[in-house]
Amino acid sequence: AIPLAIISMLVFVAPNTTSFGIASVWMIVIYCLYTAVSCAVESPSNCFGALCSPNPSERSSAISIASFLRSVGQSVVGALMKALMGQQQFKNAEGQGLDLIISTAVCALGMIIFVMIFFANNKERVPYTSEKVSILESIKLVFTNKNLLMVSLTKLFGFGRGVYGTVSLYIAIYLLGSKGLKLALMLPMGIGTAVGTLLVNFVLKKFSTKKTFIIFCCYGASAMAILYLVSKGIGFNSTLIVPFLILNFFCGIQHGNTNVTPNIMIADCIDEMEYKTGKRQEGLAYAGYGLFSKIASAFTKFLGPWLVYTWSQYKVSTDPNVAYASQDDAVLSRFLMIYTIIPAIFVILQFVPILFYDMVGEKKERITAALIEKREKENAENEAASEDAEVVSELAE
Hints:
mainly alpha
């Protein structure tokens, strides 16, 4: 966590050089380090959901609550900064890029503090081993477990759902009429995401993880389609602001599903692997899933800019005094499609692999019961061995 906090701040530090080559090398090295250390923090932290309880319903609640708090944190940092700094000071900081530096510093400090608190008050239920593993083993683990592979493939099938973030600034400027509305644009979606993580927990009490994932995907695609139709019906003017922000909240709800349900499914897959092999492999399972996630992220970061700057036929300003050139309605319509329709298509695509996921129902109950019986037997054997050791010790004395 400490190296991640330091590298997060280095992202905003530029070398004092006129050499494009040196600047490029610095940028690539820092970004690669940032990504690598992020994985080193994310992968073990993801494992805690699977380790916190052997009871699937308990760990589902724990993962949902953790995701809810994370979504709240992501949503409120910007809003709190704006409230504390004041409208004008925040606007000045935003213009200089200082808002990103300050918010990153706050998050980095908070991460270190919370990690220190966490490790001081927790004990791992499953002891760690010094077994050597490799990335090839992680990939093999994913491809040899059908259910884990299906969960991992949701990331690849749905990689385009994140392109809305690339165009959000232009939605605020051109469709809603103000650059300052970008924060107002993202806040309802962030709040919706937080609400969605709680709703997932309630839905899971009625339906399996498989049905929950599919239900939220269908809902999310429908919400984004409605946002597109309402926006086209009202037109790109100030009248659109309020309904757009309200509908943006409802679009954000489906992100709660993609933040929570796959992690719960992976924990169930780990149970299945333990049932079949006798070994729990949280680290390898989440690392394999994380690899698919990073590949999908790379695709998203290619597709988003291509859609915004090539497919939309966006016109770059040629006037040094004007940051954003005026755009015609065709460009604005494509911006709206990048924010709604295109992500909606990928939201539908991402549940296709889950149709083949079967760690639900009777199978899940049977495996859970077998593992509980196995652990009870192991605990009884350990207690008996401990008592025998005490008897031997007393006899020796």
